[in-house]
C-alpha cells in the first residue's frame, strides 16, 4: 500500500484511509493506492464491507489540480470509481470537511454515504473549465435527478450536509463524535442485514425521461448568456443528455470525450492559473515578519456610496462598525444607505427581519471622532482631497488607540504623503475597496513606505474575514488597477476618434469575454467620475500627449450615463440596457471633422489587440516599478476588480498565451503612429529578448 492510502481490517470491515495532506487530492499515488486497496478488499474473504474515509481537513478536494497539463498516468479516477462501484461488498463513503470534484465522484461510486455535520459537497469542476470526469455527470443525475444535478454541476457551488441529505446525495448525517466509528458500525449493520451493494449507476433519478429532458432544456437556455465563450458548461449539458438518453457505459464514454476536450483547452489552463493565483496573492513579504493585529471593532468615516458599502462589507463579516459623519443629516443619510441594503435583502427573502436586526445591532453612528477612540481599525472614505484626508488623519492620530490601524480608501492620492503627515506613519495603510464595496471581491492593499509589517498582515487578514481577494500594491497614481485602466481606456478613446464606434468597441470586448465593454461600464459608473479624474490630471499631462475630448463633450452636455438617462448609450425611462444613440455618433463624427481625422475601419480583432496591447504594456510598467509583486497579482486585480474574463486567467496569462513577441510586435507597429503613448515597457522588451514569458516571473518569486 502506498503511504498516502492506508488499509486496515476492523471488525470485518476493510477501512481505506486517504492520507495525503493538505486536502487528499487524488494524484497518481492516491489513485494507485485506492485501486490496490479496493482490489485487496475484494479478494479478501474476511471482508464483509468497505469504508472509505479521509484524514485531515476533509475527505478529498478532488483531482490533484497540479497534475493538469502533465502527462496523464493510469489508473484514471474514472477507472478507480468503476472498481469501487463494482465491488461485491457494500462500500460506504464516510465524508467530512469537503467532498469535492473527484472526491465526491468517489463517494458517488460508493454504495452508501454518511457525512459529518459541516461537510461541504460539490462538483466545482466547471470553475476550472472542466466537467466532472470520473463518472459524476452520469451518477449524480441518476441519483438526485437532472434538475438538481445540473444546478450543482453548472454552478459548482458547495452544498451543506443538510441540503445533501434532502437531495438524496447522502444517506445520513453523522452525529457529533467519531465519524469512522459510526461508518464502521453502519457497515457492520448493513452486512449483517444482508444489504446488497446499492449502485448509483442503477438509481432511478432519470426514470421520468420527459421531465429530465425538460430540466435539461431549461438549463441549456441560460447557458449562452451566463457562460459566454466558455466550453465546459456546454459539455456538462451534453453529458447529462447522454445520461438521460443512453445506457450508463455509453454515458461514461460521452463524459470522457467531453472531459478530454476540456482538460487540454486554454480555458482550463486559464482557470487553473486563476485558482492558484488567487491563493498566491496572499504570499507577501510581510507575511513572514508581521502577525496580524486583532480586528473586531471598525470605524468607517464617511457614509457616501463607498463608506456605506464598506460598512456593509464589515457588518456582513460579523464585525462591529461605527460610522462617523460630519453632521446629523449626513450620518442619517449614511445609515439609510446601509439600512437600504438590508431592506432589499429582506424584501427578496434572502434575509429575515431577525437577522437584519441582529446585524444592525452591531452598527452605530456618531458625528464626533471620539467615538473611534477604541476602534481596532478605522477606514476613511471621505472626499478625495488631500487636505481633507490629512485633516481626518490628524484627528485619528490624536484620538485613536496607539495600536489602531489607520486605513484610507483613497483610489489615487499619495498615501505616503498622508502617512507622513501624522505622528504614527507605521500604522497607515491603503485599503482600496471597489464599488459596490460589499459585492466586489477585490481589495487592493496599498503599502506605503513606512508601514509596519503587522499592519500589512492585518490588511490581508481583514480581507480573509471579509472573504475578499487581497492584492498587495505599491503607492502610485491609481495603484495597480486604476493606473492600468486609465491607459487602456485611452487606447480605446484613440480608436474611437480614429473610426471605431463605442458600440463596436464594447461588442468586441464583450465577445472577448468581458461582461461589459468600457463604454457601457463608463455609463454605469458615471461619466462625471472619470471626467473629474481627467480634469485633475490636466495640469500634469504631457502637453505632447494625444487627448481625446469625446467623453468630455458628452459630460459637458450632462450625459453622465445611466443616472442621467444618457451617456454613450440612451436609457429611456430608466432602462438598464442602453440603446445606441445616433446623436453620440454624430457628435463623434463632428469631433473627427474638427480635428481633421479621416475615420478608418477597425476589425473587432484589431480593437481587441490594441486594447490588450495597451493593457499589458502598462501592466509591465507597473511590474517594473515594483507596484505589483508579480504578474499574477495583476491577473487577480484585473479579474476581480475590472471584469477581465477569469477563464482567460488574467491579462498577463493571456499575453503569455498570445506570445509576448507577437504582442511587442503590435506595440512597435502602433508606436509608429504615436510614439509617446506606445512606448514599449523595457521589462516586456527584456522578456522577449530572453525568450521568457510573464510566468517566468511568477515562478521566480516566492514570498511565502
Ligand atoms: C476534479 O476533481 C476533476 C474530476 O472530476 C475528474 C477526475 C478526478 N489539488 O484553498 P486553500 C491546495 S477537478 C491540488 O488555501 P481553503 C491549495 O492549492 C478538482 N491542490 O484552502 C492550497 O495549497 P497551498 C475539483 C489543492 O480551506 C491548499 O490545498 N476540486 C487542491 O480555503 C489549501 O487550499 C476543486 O475544484 C486540489 N484539488 O479551501 C476544489 N485543492 O497551501 C479546489 C486545494 O500550497 N479547492 N489545494 O497554497 C478548493 O476549492 C479549496 O482549496 C478547498 C479548501 C475548498 C478544498
From TrEMBL:
Keywords: Fatty acid metabolism, Isomerase, Lipid degradation, Lipid metabolism, Lyase, Multifunctional enzyme, NAD, Oxidoreductase, Peroxisome
Subcellular localization(s) per the UniProt record: Peroxisome
CDD domains per the UniProt record, alphabetical: crotonase-like
Top-rank taxon, per record: Bacteria
Domain 3-hydroxyacyl-CoA dehydrogenase NAD binding: 297-473
GO molecular function: (3S)-3-hydroxyacyl-CoA dehydrogenase (NAD+) activity; enoyl-CoA hydratase activity; isomerase activity; NAD+ binding
Sequence ranges assigned to domain 3-hydroxyacyl-CoA dehydrogenase C-terminal in this UniProt record: 478-571, 607-691
Xref: Pfam families: 3HCDH, 3HCDH_N, ECH_1
UniProt main location, coarse: other
PROSITE patterns: ENOYL_COA_HYDRATASE (PS00166)
Pathway: Lipid metabolism; fatty acid beta-oxidation
Signal peptide, first to last residue: none
UniProt-listed SUPFAM superfamilies: 6-phosphogluconate dehydrogenase C-terminal domain-like, ClpP/crotonase, NAD(P)-binding Rossmann-fold domains
Chemical reaction(s) catalysed: a (3S)-3-hydroxyacyl-CoA + NAD(+) = a 3-oxoacyl-CoA + NADH + H(+)
Gene Ontology BP terms: fatty acid beta-oxidation
UniProt record similarity statement: In the N-terminal section; belongs to the enoyl-CoA hydratase/isomerase family.
Protein name (database record): 3-hydroxyacyl-CoA dehydrogenase
Provenance organism: Cupriavidus oxalaticus
